[in-house]
Amino acid sequence: MHFATLTAEAPDRLEVRLAESADEIAAAQALRYRVFYEEMGAKPSTAMQARRSDFDDFDDVCDHLLVLDHTRGTGAAGVVGTYRLMRRPVGEAFGRFYTAGEYDISNILAQGGHFMELGRSCVDAGHRNGATMKKLWDGIAAYIFQHDVDLMFGCASLPGTDLESLAGHLSYLHHYHLAPPELCPRALSHLYVDMARKPKDSLEPRRALAALPPLIKGYLRLGGFVGDGAVIDHQFNTTDICVMVKTDLVTAKYRAHYDRAIREQSEGI
After folding, report:
1. Which residues neighbour 259 within 8 Å (Cβ) at sequence distance 6 or greater?
2. Domains along the sequence of the chain with CATH
3. Would you call 115 helix, strand, or coil by DSSP?
4. Which residue, of 76, 109, 197, 263, is most buried by count of CB atoms within 10 Å of its CB?
5. How far is CA 45 from the centre of its chain?
6. Residue 76 has what pLDDT?
7. Of 92, 65, 70, 68, whose CA–CA distance to 79 is shortest?
């Protein structure tokens, strides 16, 4: 799936679209391996290490959003960013959602509507800049718009597993961005880590927000919420939180962009 209305504004070396071949998916998996295992210290299985690839059962059913840098080559050779997306009917047909391995998401499932799960986001070390991230978000916005998605959720990660050093991040998220009870997922009881590690009045909200990883800040700026409890992921050397974003702001911004692009095309601009 190409997102022409998002890439046609100006000639650009970067393109965002869904993977169109097994080779492109393999390139995304190889990128994930470099970022998660070689840079961030995740622990690969023997099979992953042999293939230098991050993969699991979900890869076969998910859509893989890609950012490609055409100066590096076409197709798989150009992959410099990726996100993995799974819509509700796909997850239900598959029989499970990745997030459910860490969180009770029954509240989300009970909401009805069109939702999607997203995760496995990463960007090549040489492309971690605003242009690449904008392309990824453009692609997500187009995907949400085209599939009428009203809620997106997934596990987002804080680097490391030292709860003392992460206490400020976790406490801020819990005290200021906890999801409403009717929507709030909860970390599974055997994995549950209390996020309220510091009292609310000891925090400086602006400084706490500024210190968060860019991806989590991006979710919050769209009005995102977090679930109850964190989960330590020893394989990935991260501490995970569950993030949910109602897509009203995303779709409103994209619709304005889409309507403007259509109008300009019809006027021959």
Report:
1. none
2. 1-96+114-150 (3.40.630.30)
3. strand
4. 76
5. 23
6. 94
7. 68
